[in-house]
Structure formats: C-alpha cells, structure tokens
C-alpha cells in the first residue's frame, strides 16, 4: 500500500465539535457541521453528529449523496445555491437548501410539488462578503414571493462572511442580520426557524460579550476540522489542531548543486522558498504533487523548507536530518491542502477513533435514504 495518506482522528473531530456546541449553547446558537472540505466523508460527518452538531451542511450534492448512501439520515443543508440542473437531487436528498435566485426556487418548488413533498428554503442575504446573497432591500419582496409558492417553505435567512473577502463579520453586520429577521417576522407573521449567522469566522463574535440577537445557528467547518480561525489563521484555544495528518513517501534524497540559476515555473508567493541559485543543502522529493494537495497550504516539519512543486512531486530542502528514500514525511494541512487532499483519489484516508458508523451502514444497507 502507498504511504500517501491522511490520518484522521475521529475522536479529535468529535471533541472539537462538542467543545464548540457546548460553548455556543448558552448563546442560543446551534451548530451545523460543514463537511465540504472532507467531501462529505461519512465517518467524519458522523463524528460531528456524535459531537452534538444538530445537522450537517455541504456545498455539493455529490457529497450529500455520499452521506445519504452511508445511512446518515439527519437534516442536511445544501449551502451552495443549487444548480438548476440538479434541483431533483436537491429535493430528494436535502432537507434544506440555501437560495438566492427566484428561478431556482421556483424550480425546486415545482419539483417538490410533483413529489408531494415540501422543500425548505433559507434565503441568503448579502452582508458584505460579496459572494452569494440577495440585497437586504430585496428581502421583503423575495420573501413575499416565496410565501405565495406551494412546494417550498421559508425556513429562515442567513448570511455568509469571510469567504470571498477576508474580513470577519462586524457586530454591526450581525445586528443588521438580526434586524432583518425581526422585520421579516413583523411583516409576514410566521417566525423564522433559523437565522444562520455564518461560518467559523463568526465564532469570535458569537462567543464574545455582545448579544447574539436573533441569530441561532452557525455552520462550522474549519473550526471543527482544523481548530483554526479562517480570518486570523490562528489556533482557537481549547481545540485540537491536529485531527488530520498528511503523510508522503520520500522517493529521492540527494545533495544537489545548482550551476545555473533556476527560474521556477510554479512560484507560490505566499510561501517562503529557498533560493535556487546558491550552493544547496540536501534535497528530497516527496511522492505527492499538485494533483494531490495544495502545496501553499502545507506546513512542513522543522528544518524542512519547501522548494517547489509539480503535478506529481514536491521538492523540499532539509538542513538537519535528511529523509532517506523509502521513508515518510509528516505534513500539516491548512484548509486548502486538506480539502484538495481529501478529494484526491490517490491519497488514502485512514481513520482512528471509535466510530458507530459501521453499525449505521450495516443497518441501512438494504434501505436507501428516503424522506
Ligand atoms: C464553507 C461554508 C461554511 C463553513 O465555513 P468555515 O469557515 O469552514 O466554517 C459556511 N457557510 C457557507 C455558505 C459555506 O460555503
């Protein structure tokens, strides 16, 4: 077996989820575990549920179906606006989808009506991240259109922060989201079940001293999986930051000098790279490349410096103890490297920690998910 693998510690993922669920509870906030960075891996999704997440959320219908096929029957939200071409699968597999386009909502409604079910909608409001969302001034008219439709039910509103932009949500933005929820309830009567206030970037706000208002849900991925804050990139106190470990095999180690300066064809601006035009130390090649991970999202062991990467190789320079061919190197992953490696077929996923999922899968073997 190849040594190229990610070790996943399910106990640490369960612990991180429980830690966040317990701290958000006094603020009246529940947690949806976001599984998109791990491609909806059922073992990891299940660890989030065991840690107290009240539901799961993913950006891709393929990941949702992977969880359904493994027997996971909890509420799953599609948090990327559905593709018009996938509304049937969304209605079949997701309890809720996040939406911003009337044309797609109308199509979800038609599909749900045809199946004699109701599909739940969360309307995403643009609050400054400039990714998805209807403008706050269009919220009232959009809500009134949805309320007149059969086949869909408005479950709540939500907003997204710090995904496209890199700015944590301000208390003002959160207060505005709360007041939009209050205005909507005042205008239309029925209470909004969910007011979803963003992802891991909203944790400093949610756990801070200020009132959390109407916001009663966060969708957490990075904080649970990596224990880090997506804006500052710092570790969040109390959480494990090492639930995932990427291992790659060394396939060459040699002292190489560079008679000619090399122009790198894949510079990674955010990384500190060794210069290639001086006399060099020992250089190693790892059997992992850009097809398997995001080199800019890797953290190397002490004494190891990144040199460059191609589709199938990562080249590092070592100062203290060179790794021999056949040995392996332990790498830490940031979010971008984790999500690409979890999606890469050549990276094996190895789980440790107790899991009850095997029993769920066995119990559901003959019963595909149905709502
Ligand atoms: C990815 C995503 C999240 C989770 O973000 P994290 O920073 O990983 O917690 C939440 N909501 C939406 C809409 C997302 O796309």
Textual characterization of the structure:
- With 371 residues, the protein is of the alpha/beta class.
- It folds into two domains: 10-226, Alanine racemase (TIM Barrel, Alpha-Beta Barrel), CATH 3.20.20; 244-352, Elongation Factor Tu (Ef-tu), domain 3 (Beta Barrel).
- Helix content is 29%, strand content 23%.
- The chain has eleven helices and 16 strands.
- The chain has helices at residues 10-24, 42-50, 61-69, 87-93, 102-114, 139-147, 171-188, 203-206, 222-226, 335-343, 357-364; strands spanning 5-9, 30-34, 55-58, 76-78, 96-99, 119-125, 152-159, 194-196, 217-220, 244-255, 282-286, 298-299, 304-309, 314-318, 328-333, 348-352.
- Helix 1 packs across helix 2 and helix 6 (139-147) packs across helix 7 (171-188).
- The mean pLDDT is 90.
- It binds pyridoxal-5'-phosphate.
- Residues 34, 36, 59, 79, 160, 163, 199-201, 219-223, 230 line the site of pyridoxal-5'-phosphate.
